[in-house]
Hints:
- By secondary structure, this protein is α/β, with parallel strands linked by helices.
- The protein folds into 2 domains: 27-242, Rossmann fold (3-Layer(aba) Sandwich), CATH 3.40.50.10780; 248-325, Gyrase A, domain 2, CATH 3.30.1360.
- Helix content is 37%, strand content 19%.
- It is built from 11 helices and 12 strands.
- The strands form 2 sheets. A 7-stranded mixed beta sheet has the order 3-2-1-4-7-8-9, sandwiched between helices. A 5-stranded antiparallel beta sheet has the order 6-5-10-12-11, covered by helices on one side.
Amino acid sequence: MSSRIKSWIMCTLAFFAACLVITVPAHAVDGKKVFLLYDMEGVTGADTAGDYDTTSPDYSRVRQSLTDDVNAAIAGLKKAGVTEIIISDGHASGNDKGPDYIVEQIPAGAHFEIRSKPYDPYVDVLDKSFDALVLIGYHARGGSTSGFTPHTYFGTIQWEMNGMKMSETSEVGIYAASLGVPLILVSGDDVHKGQVAEFTKAEYVVVKKAISATKAEPRDRDTVSAELTAAAERGFRNRKSIGYYKIPPILTNKWIFPYAELTAMASNYPGVTIENDKTLVYTSNSYKDSLAAYTHVSNIVRYFSDHLIVEALQNSPGGADKVRELRRSLPPRDYTPTDKPLYVDNKLATWGYE
């Protein structure tokens, strides 16, 4: 072989080697990256409604159970070769001192997302740099006739998208799908398992049996932890075959309300049409827009039950006088700004909010 041919071969090999280096995805060089978002109603140890609120005497116990669930999943992800795990709080129990997850127990290789300003963990953390999504401690959707603490978002509006009944799991799972990020693992009660299977082939670990909307029967701690670890490892290794939900180009969203008064209030949202006195329809070609519209309207109407309570009080014996007395106790209207910092609801925490 002539030296000229040898030189040509070496140059050609060098060229293709350079191309390989250029075309390797950044995260393949840096390691594998997973976003782990948790809720709290669906953790193993939450067996009575309200256990997961900071006002509950059982909050510390349930908080530890949440941490154990999360850390068991992290162990499996690390076994599968994941090198970067970002955790965020999707529950916000009202704890203003820190996340519900006990950050002092965070394993090596994991990082808790804490920002200087409030953020939405459903959409503000996830991006295309992630290889997978894990959801720990989730629950049955609003309108379910069974399941432990079934609700979606604030629980005021049922959401159907192209005929599929939405849950908090599908809300964030489908947003991840819009970025090409597969949902690989969900944990929660036995009722929610079937609901998750409606839109994804993700691994699911049943951590407890739902007895009613307010009671659940937890499974053995060691058994649950072992299953979470195995499912997380299996899910990440099989993430390509799990795939993700294919979002239709046109999204027909139905918002179903428990009170006609709520429907009337929400009908002012731009772009909605009225189907009946309990249902509004909102059409969009963007899932992120659909999710934003649903959460925005949910925030608008979430306090309507307080209005019904005031009305009931006003119509009760002596209630009208009591309402007038309470109204007189309100501070006078003053539109002048003060130097006081603006109070923000604790749910808008710097470690995420529900």
